[in-house]
Design goal:
Chain lengths: 424, 457
């Protein structure tokens, strides 16, 4: 049985950052990274650009082999974990091999969630999580584009919206179906979402919000999507983008606690000894200690990976993970929407303050949310600011009450001035 | 990973003129139109101070860690480089950076960031206020890092002491063809002469008496020469071993023009034996032998200016240096080493003592910097053929009290004592100013020490 001091399962953002953090402190320990894929690691975030043809698939690798060699990391492809035995500190792979570990990081990410829609298993549909998914979708998208075929996207999250735009750019007639009553729920409020939705409509995309799919039925080469209420959309291409679920199948019976994802403490330690977890596989605690969305955020996965790696290597500079803050940069049809943090709750107490500029018809929309003078969230469409600085202002609980007007007027310069005085 | 040059910003000197931003915008313009400046100066309306947003070329760049397209990478030159051919314009890098160092440019249609203009940053060149500085010390550290470390890995020094820095860096540069003398003091205490019968460094090292360091080195250097070998004769001594107990041999060797490189690490007292006063101890300072109580308020005499005394010997080379100004120290070490091939070279290093001066161990370099910025320690260089030159401007010093208040050994000072120190610092600065203004023929320049001494006196 092979044995390594550190084994990292998964080679996406969290796993790669953990490798770097481990090696930064432990120059000699043996490290292996095991990836399911049979090719160099690719970020799910870059896949819509492969679908659109903006980036060729051979120029998107997150790391080249040389990077692993330089770090003296054994990089294994097509290594699929099948079971974890925490009592004997070893992993069993799908091909039967066993690998022993001193310390283990679970960074296996997430897989597309398939909603329980009647008839879905009887039709051909696409998802977008791996490079294979993207290549398959690219092929049908260009075919659908050439023939001005019809595409239906289920789900108006970031993946669905990105894919819908790229399908439309390819020439397909696109319909987005979202069961909640706005696009990008959880990232933007209704006003911001309406601006984004408007851009899609202006570009010929049909957006159906507040609608549920009743049933899917095969039709010629494609399918028909029947909505509750009776309406039907024919689809040559069907993309299911209804969110993700953590990839935890191999953890059954391992002693690693799993709820909505792997349960971890503030140093990304799981319930099992010598096992850490980071990234989309984790049930991320919200920084705000509430139920605001806190998973699936790329910069957060990197922070978790770093925290886990430092903790595994015993780096004395380790700081507890502060909790997830929702953070998105979203480009659509050449425009930009940015969101950092949380909106005010429905029943906000007296300490909450929400400032908005730019309603319907204006050039730009900006919303700033404060609680007791502390920044909680910033949401902008067609307004530029530095999301990274806003994130840090939230994490540091900086009192920005006196600058609320200035932040609304000029969020970029006001936040930069605060940054320069506080942490530069 | 190598260290990187940085563009340093001094908010106190910035008046928001915007010249840096204009220079950047035109330097980065490709089609005649002004680009978006990669440096951004902003005013904080609340504090009234100017601030800066610019890429810091982080050692551990988070913009690159979060990039899903591997379009950002820290190169061997230290610059975090952006690859247009890989970027997908997702802007996640702008969420990774907490400094506003990479931002979307509506003009250009993609993210832009500083690349330090391939080693000649135009923003710095355009800044006439001295608010922006291009700090290249990192290049020196990288070069020094490639030289062999000739000291033991572990040392018995006090936490935060800068003497380890001085010892390691000096020996790295001077190299292995060296005989080292370390008279009693902190340096052998830290381990230069070794432990348990083992040497503390990879060059021959000996432990002379406090009194005879320069004499012994004289003999060693001459004997090697007679045998046809050219070795560097190096002394690393404290201020007591140089200027007090060791002064007669030091003065003699300097006057004779022996080919020795004598480095004095001045911590203003006999610190390794319990912080007794020396001739270099500042007026008013607390030491074990100049206590503070009902009848005494610290030392009652001014420190003697040992490097200036050495200059009057007409040495080949004399200079003062500080570990807060490493580029300057390196340049002087280089010059001193070269001069020691021709005659006596004396390098005086100011070395704040964390334990004996009573300040936090993390503040050593800050204390050293303040000493220089207040003119408490003036940095200068004397070459026999060129005379004396100030290493940095001394006309606009920070208040001496900025330095005094950092140190526990001055905590008891009353107004009269502070005034005394301020006057002494001002007088010393004036002496240095006048010496620096002297021209050939004024008496500071001569070919040989003896002629020099005759002319002077």
């Amino acid at each position: 049985m092979e044995q390594f001091d550190y084994v990292v399962l998964g080679a996406s953002h969290a796993g790669l950052e953990a490798l770097r953090a481990i090696r930064a402190h432990d120059a000699d320990g043996s490290i292996a990274v095991l990836d399911r894929e049979g090719r160099l690691p690719v970020s799910p975030t870059v896949l819509p650009y492969v679908v659109s043809g903006k980036r060729p698939e051979d120029r998107i690798a997150l790391r080249e082999r040389g990077w692993f060699d330089d770090l003296q990391v054994a990089y294994r492809q097509q290594a699929h974990a099948a079971a974890l035995d925490t009592a004997y500190s070893r992993l069993r792979l799908a091909d039967g091999r066993e690998i022993g570990y001193g310390k283990l990081l679970l960074a296996t990410g997430a897989a597309p969630a398939i909603p329980p829609i009647e008839g879905l298993s009887d039709v051909r549909f696409h998802v977008l999580r791996t490079l294979d998914d993207a290549l398959a979708l690219r092929e049908v998208a260009s075919a659908a584009g050439r023939s001005a075929g019809r595409a239906v996207v289920l789900g108006a999250g970031l993946v669905g919206m990105h894919a819908a735009e790229n399908l439309a750019r390819a020439g397909a007639r696109v319909t987005i179906v979202e069961m909640r009553d706005q696009v990008l729920p959880g990232y933007f409020d209704a006003t911001a979402a309406a601006r984004i939705e408007g851009a899609f409509r202006d570009n010929g995309v049909e957006v159906l919000t507040g609608r549920r799919v009743a049933r899917v039925a095969p039709r010629a080469a494609g399918c028909t999507v029947l909505l509750e209420g009776g309406e039907a959309c024919d689809a040559d291409v069907l993309l299911v983008a209804a969110g993700v679920r953590p990839e935890v199948s191999y953890l059954a019976g391992s002693g690693v606690a799993v709820e909505r994802g792997v349960v971890v403490d503030e140093f990304m330690r799981t319930a099992a000894a010598n096992v850490w977890a980071a990234g989309d596989v984790v049930q991320t605690r919200s920084f705000f200690g509430d139920a605001t969305p806190a998973g699936g955020i790329l910069p957060d996965a990197v922070e978790q990976g770093r925290t886990a790696g430092m903790s595994m290597a015993g780096d004395p500079a380790l700081q507890p993970y502060p909790g997830g803050v929702s953070l998105n940069t979203y480009g659509f049809f050449g425009r930009r929407a940015l969101s950092v943090g949380r909106d005010a709750p429905r029943e906000a107490g007296p300490g909450w303050e929400t400032r908005v500029r730019g309603g319907e018809g204006s050039d730009a929309y900006l919303k700033i949310v404060l609680c007791e003078g502390r920044l909680q969230g910033v949401f902008g469409v067609d307004v530029l600011f530095d999301p990274g600085i806003m994130w840090e202002l939230i994490l540091r609980r900086v009192d920005v009450g006196a600058r609320a007007d200035a932040l609304l007027e000029d969020p970029q310069d006001t936040a930069r001035a605060l940054m320069s005085g506080l942490w530069r | 990973m190598t260290a990187t040059p940085t563009i340093a910003f001094d908010a106190a000197r910035c008046d928001g003129c915007g010249d840096c931003m204009n220079a950047c915008a035109s330097a980065k313009s490709t089609d005649g139109k002004l680009a978006q400046a990669r440096i951004h100066i902003i005013r904080d309306a609340e504090s009234g101070r100017w601030g800066v947003a610019q890429c810091r070329q982080c050692g551990d760049p988070r913009c690159a860690s979060v990039c899903p397209a591997a379009a950002l990478e820290k190169g061997d030159d230290g610059i975090v480089a952006w690859d247009a051919g890989r970027c997908v314009n997702c802007l996640i890098c702008t969420a990774g950076c907490t400094f506003g160092g990479i931002a979307f440019s509506a003009k250009e249609g993609y993210v832009v960031k500083c690349d330090q203009c391939a080693g000649a940053p135009q923003c710095v060149a355009a800044c006439t206020r001295g608010a922006l500085r291009y700090v290249t010390t990192a290049k020196l550290y990288n070069r020094w890092g490639e030289l062999e470390d000739l000291f033991v890995p572990g040392l018995g020094g006090c936490q935060g002491c800068n003497t380890e820095l001085i010892m390691r860096h000096t020996l790295r540069r001077v190299g292995s063809n060296t005989v080292l003398a370390t008279p009693p003091g902190c340096i052998p205490g830290m381990g230069s002469v070794g432990y348990n019968g083992m040497l503390g460094c990879k060059v021959p090292v000996f432990h002379p008496l406090l009194t005879n360091t320069a004499s012994m080195l004289t003999g060693i250097r001459r004997q090697y020469k007679r045998k046809g070998r050219n070795v560097t004769a190096l002394a690393l001594a404290g201020d007591g071993g140089a200027g007090d107990v060791g002064f007669q041999s030091l003065s003699g060797a300097a006057e004779r023009g022996e080919q020795i490189l004598f480095v004095c690490v001045d911590n203003e007292g006999y610190m390794n034996t319990g912080a007794q006063r020396s001739g270099s101890t500042t007026y008013g300072a607390w030491t074990a032998t100049t206590p503070v109580g009902e009848g005494a308020r610290g030392k009652t005499q001014d420190a003697k200016n040992l490097p200036l005394l050495m200059m009057w010997h007409g040495c080949e080379y004399v200079a003062t240096a500080s570990t807060a100004f490493m580029e300057d120290f390196y340049a002087k070490l280089e010059a001193a080493l070269d001069a020691s091939e021709r005659g006596f070279a004396y390098l005086h290093l100011y070395s704040p003592c964390t334990s004996g001066w009573r300040f936090p161990s993390a503040s050593n370099i800050e204390v050293a910097r303040k000493a220089v910025e207040t003119n408490f320690a003036v940095l200068w260089e004397y070459r026999r053929e060129h005379g004396l030159k100030l290493s940095r401007d001394i006309d606009d010093p920070a208040p001496v009290t900025d330095y005094l208040k950092l140190l526990g050994k001055f905590r008891h000072l009353d107004a009269a004592q502070i005034a005394h120190i301020e006057q002494h610092v001002a007088e010393q600065a004036q002496v240095m100013r006048e010496l620096a203004a002297m021209r050939p023929g004024d008496g500071l320049f001569d070919r040989s020490p003896s002629n020099f001494l005759n002319a002077a006196g």
